[in-house]
Each structure stands twice: as C-alpha cells, then as structure tokens.
Amino acid sequence: MPINRDVPLLEYDPNPRAVLEPGHDGPGLRLPESCAFPFVGDCVRDYARAHDLPVLGECVTITKRYPVYRVSDAVCLCEAPMGAPVAACVMDFLLACGVRRVVAAGSCGALIDLPENAFVLPGRALRDEGTSFHYLPASRWIDLDADARGHIKRALTAEGLALIETDTWTTDAIHRETRDKIASRRAEGCGVVEMECAALAAVASFRGAKFGQFLFTADSLANANAYDARDWGAASLMPALTLCLKIAEAWT
C-alpha cells in the first residue's frame, strides 16, 4: 500500500476487510433491504412510539444506542446521528445487517439566499470531511447516486414540494465555516452545507449499496456579516421523517 507521510488521509487502503468489521454487535441480525435514515433526533423515537414500531436490533456506541425499527417487511427506520464518523458507523452496521438501499434526510445551512425549510436535492458533495477518505480514494467531489436521486425527486415532486437542486459542502467543522471558505464553496457551486452527505455516499459506494439524501434548509450563512440561526429548520423535522419513510417504502 502506498503511504503518504505528509497527509494521512491520502493513505487509502483498498483492502475490503478490517480488523473490526461492522455488524459485530448484531450477529445474525437481518434487516429489511430499504432503510429510512433521517437526521431528525428524537423525532424517530417519538414516531416509533406513536406507531408502535417493534425494535429489530440496535447499533451500540459508547455514548448511545441506535435502535432499528421495523416499519414493514421491506422497510426499517433508524435515527441518523450528527457528524460523519458516527453516521458512517451506524450506516455501516445497517449495511452489514442486510440493508441495501438507504434514504437519508437532514438539515443544512444555506450558503446562498434560500428560505428556511426549503427542500434541497444535492447532485454531488464536496468531501471536506475525513471519513470518506477511508472508504474511497482521495478526490474533491463525490457524485450522488442517480437512481436514488430520481426516486427522491419523483417523491418530493409528487408531494407538491418545490425542490432546489444544488451541490453540497460536507464539512466536519461546523465552527470553521469562515467567510473565505464560504465564498470559495459558493464559487464552486455549493448552495448548502452539512456534515454527513459525502461520507455516507462513500460508505454506500464502498459497500456496493444504494444511497440517496435530501436536505431541508435550517440556518443561513448567506450573509457573511450576519449569521442567521432562524429556527434551525424545526418545522421540517417530522415532515422530513415521513417523507423519508415514503421514499424508502416506494424504493423497494
């Protein structure tokens, strides 16, 4: 394996086997092939309780357990955690247990003048995080799966939702989105910023699975001199979850 002594993230190893493989904490667990994986926090737990969804298994981390709920024979539901490393860890668990299609929904910051709670369909993600470089060789961008994008676009359009198509900037450092970086990302075509999309797309590609994601706008960084938290897209949390489930149920 070639080693880059200057930049460790460029030391990509294509060996498909790791010492610690995903799914070690769920041996024998077989999940439905389609999974809704929304970044909506406690809304997943609340939805599961309200609809009396049974727990099929759980991904265990040192800080939290992530239950996987049965929605139907073909679809399961799991909360997606904030941040690329943990989100990738949970998604790897899902794929190791039989999931082949993942639909994610999450919030994003607007880099251009977009209203809050607008729905966004990214075409590609700028890989400004560390996780994806362990799953795919180094590159600046990763394209989102065209088949998954088509399913998501048709579903959102059928709901009568206006859909914004743009590239997204995936970054690990929410508090290092500087004026110059924002301007640079906008110049490259990124209309929004989030923390997981590039990493999850890389995990899916590496594992031979399908992955798609839609976003909803929360805060705004469009005005470099006046950050606007707005309401963090709170009004879109439950609608995004139900849309995510509808897409997963249709994509079977």
Concise summary:
This protein has helices at residues 43-50, 84-96, 146-158, 179-188, 197-207, 237-250, and strands at 34-38, 55-60, 65-70, 75-78, 101-110, 119-128, 141-143, 163-171, 190-194, 210-220.
Draw up the topology in text.
Blueprint: E1 34-38, H1 43-50, E2 55-60, E3 65-70, E4 75-78, H2 84-96, E5 101-110, E6 119-128, E7 141-143, H3 146-158, E8 163-171, H4 179-188, E9 190-194, H5 197-207, E10 210-220, H6 237-250
Parallel strand pairs: 1-4, 1-5, 5-10, 6-8, 8-9
Antiparallel strand pairs: 2-3, 3-4, 5-9, 6-7, 6-10
Helix pairs in contact: 2-5, 3-6
Determine the N-to-C terminus distance: 38 Å
The CATH class is identified as Alpha Beta
Q: What is the helix content?
A: 25-40%
- Tell me, what's the shape? globular
Structure explained in plain terms:
The protein is of the alpha/beta class and 252 residues long. It has a single domain, classed as Nucleoside phosphorylase domain (Rossmann fold, 3-Layer(aba) Sandwich). It has helices spanning 43-50, 84-96, 146-158, 179-188, 197-207, 237-250, and strands spanning 34-38, 55-60, 65-70, 75-78, 101-110, 119-128, 141-143, 163-171, 190-194, 210-220. Helix 2 runs parallel beside helix 5 (197-207) and helix 3 (146-158) packs across helix 6. The longest helix has 14 residues, at 237-250. It is globular, with a radius of gyration of 18 Å.
